[in-house]
């Protein structure tokens, strides 16, 4: 059921069946305007929309009672006030997630009602100290609430606002009895977003969940690829193998878009395009690149300004270089800058 469609042809769900064009390349607000507000909060998403983002991105993890919530990871010690909540002290645990041992508090050990009592915090306070002023102001959002934010903003602004969720660790959740794909499709059906007209794109680092979703929903699918490691559920695949002509052909059989770490598109040390965009387009795949951040620490050397790793470099120029490489979309913690660079 492969559906290679231009993202610009997506339609606002819930309204008249009138095709609405998105600008090109897409600007995707990475966890909202997460450079300026704590990530995955209503404030972050709404600021991103105000700044002109086309899509907002929630990372999705699961609760003990089977709900999908927007958090960067299922470990929430650094993104909520859970560590300060005495009633949840006994929930602290050590787990192995995708081969990595992690100690903290995990969403799958809480019901949705319990998680709703927590408040969001800035994940990178040393890098983004201004965001700390917003700590404690907002609750954790469900996936359905993120859809509602996009739907309400589309009605308010008169332009399409899409949602591009990332399914985090679906193999892990399935192994503990929380099948993420079933919960995900159930939300789409309940919200009327399961059909081809929804302004929805779905992404995952794992391969098999995308293959299964390809048979269940009509949304474009994104195969995420990091530079340093392959998908957890397919240890036989390396990034190089996935980006070979054979690998691209295999991905194009179940997905529509590559979501690539920026160094796979333009080498950070030399500033030279790798050719992956042209190869992907030849295989029938679009390319989204992640993640554009303003701080020097996250920028290639040519775009850093000064010696302070937390100071802002020239994100505008870095975005322009990526646009010039031919990518079809960019993820940015600072979507306002990405929108300005696109203009």
UniProtKB/TrEMBL annotation:
The keyword Hydrolase applies. Residues 25-342 form the GP-PDE domain. PROSITE patterns: GP_PDE. GO terms for biological process: glycerol metabolic process; lipid metabolic process. It catalyses: a sn-glycero-3-phosphodiester + H2O = an alcohol + sn-glycerol 3-phosphate + H(+). GO terms for cellular component: periplasmic space. Keywords: Glycerol metabolism, Hydrolase, Signal. Belongs to the glycerophosphoryl diester phosphodiesterase family. This is glycerophosphodiester phosphodiesterase. It comes from Brevundimonas abyssalis TAR-001.
